[in-house]
Amino acid sequence: MSNATVTSESSAARAPLPDPILDADAFHANVAPPPKSGPTLVARPAAANVKPGDRELVERTLRGEQRAFGELVRRHQRRIYRLTLHMLRDRAEAEDVTQETFVRAYGALARFDGRSEPYTWIYRIAVNLSLNAIRARRSARRTIARQEEETRYLSMENDATLRSCSPPVDAAKRQLYMALARAIDTLSDTLRTTLILVCVDGRSHEDAAVILGAPEGTIAWRVHEARRKLRAILLERGFELDDALLGSGGAS
C-alpha cells in the first residue's frame, strides 16, 4: 500500500479519534455474555510475554473469560472506527456504528465459524451496519452539511509534501481532495465500499473478498471500475486523478 494512501479527515477539520471509543475493560459488564456453545477454534497457546492471537481471545471469551473480548475491542476499535468514518462521514454516527459493531460481534460470537480471521468477521459486521445506516439516511432524505463534507475520506494529515507546500499549491490540492470526495460519493454502494476497504483502508484483495463475500477477481474488477469512474468524473470537473491519492489498489 502506498504511503500516500489517504485517510478520512481534512487537515482543517481533523480531531483525534475517541480514546477509547468503548471502555473495553467494562464492556462485558454492559452486554449479556455470549452463549458458550460454538465451534472450537484452532488457537495456539500464547507463550510467556507474547500477546494472544485473535482466535485465542475468541476462544477465551467463549470459555467465559469475558475480559478477553475487551482485548479484541482494544485491538481493533480504532481501525473499525476509521472504516465507519470513511463510509459514513459523520463522527457521531461512526462512533455509534463502531459500538454497535462490537455489541453485535459479542452477541454472535458463538456463531463465528472460524473459517475467516476474527477481524475480517468484525469488519463484515461494521460494513453491513454502515451500509444500513447509509440506506436509512437516504430513506429519511437526510442531508449532509457542508462542514461534514470536510471530514470525508481524504486528509492532508500524513502528507509531508502538502505540509511543505506553499499556500496556493496547498489550496489546489485541497480542491482536488474535495472534488475526489464528492466523486466517491457518486459511486454505487458496492464500488464505494470496495474502494474504501482496498484503496483507503488498505485491506488486501484477499481480505476484502472475505469481508464482502466476493471472489478476489470481483474485488479487483470493482477497484478498477471505481478508479475508472472517478477518473472520468474528475476530468469532467477539470481535475486529473493522481493515482497516488488512492494508493496501490491493495493487491494481494
Describe it for me?
The chain has 252 residues and is mainly α. 56% of the residues lie in helices and 0% in strands. It folds into two domains: 27-139, Rna Polymerase Sigma Factor, Chain: A, CATH 1.10.1740.10; 159-246, Winged helix-like DNA-binding domain superfamily/Winged helix DNA-binding domain (Arc Repressor Mutant, subunit A, Orthogonal Bundle), CATH 1.10.10. The chain contains eleven helices and no strands. Helix 10 (205-212) packs across helix 11. Residues 1-20 and 153-166 have low confidence and may be disordered.
CATH architecture of the largest domain: Orthogonal Bundle
| CATH class term of the largest domain | Mainly Alpha
Task: Compute the number of structural domains.
Answer: 2
Q: Determine the structural class based on helices, strands and strand pairing.
A: mainly alpha
Order of helices and strands: HHHHHHHHHHH
Mean pLDDT: 76
In DSSP terms (H or I, runs of 4 or more residues), the helix count works out at 11
Can you tell me the CATH topology of the largest domain?
Rna Polymerase Sigma Factor, Chain: A
CATH homology-level superfamily of the largest domain: RNA polymerase sigma factor, region 2, helix turn helix motif
Query: Could you tell me the radius of gyration in angstroms?
Result: 19 Å
Low-confidence stretches: 1-20, 153-166
In terms of DSSP E residues, the strand content is under 5%
**What characterizes the major β-sheet?**
none
Oligomer class: single chain
Number of strands: 0
Summarize the amount of helix as a percent range.
55-70%
State the end-to-end CA separation.
Answer: 10 Å
Shape assignment: elongated
